[in-house]
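Per reviewer request, we include the raw input and output of the structure prediction for the construct analysed in the revised manuscript.
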Amino acid sequence: MTDTKRIVIGAARAEVVKLATLPSLALTVALTWAVTALVRLADPARGVVPYAQVGVLILGVLAAGHEYQGGGQIRATLLAVPRRPLLVVAKIVALVPVGGLAVLGAALLAGEAGATGGLLVDLLLAAGVGTIMRHPVGATAVVLTAYEMVVPLVRAHLPEVALPPAPVWAAAVVTIAAVIFCRREA
């Protein structure tokens, strides 16, 4: 096994442990699942995925932005893995399975297992915004405003404007976040 693979695997393992043990992420997942289940029980005819989507967006922002809060954990992470491109790969490799389980649970509780892929795309997009902004509260405000206000308004009032699908947005945001992360100072 090459040195690069060892670094990515070790960093991904550390990221998985970090994501799985952060209390704020566990609380976000629990609240997302609880709200999704309660809304589905209260009104089974209502579409529940948008409620799950809000929790998934917050989860993505927190997963990426928690290292920049308070004690500056990002410095320790960068000391452990100073090669930023490898660290970006490790963070994505860790977020997909850990976040994927949370997303799958939310989709199943919403009664729409087919929504898992879309929610996972939303998770990655939100994580990209959290990485770019480095401030979880601000990034959450931006993501929720975009998803819950701007996009619906554009679709309602400007139907002739063709918005790209969410996977295109997510790929663009994650790519921009990776480039910014690799180039900026911690």
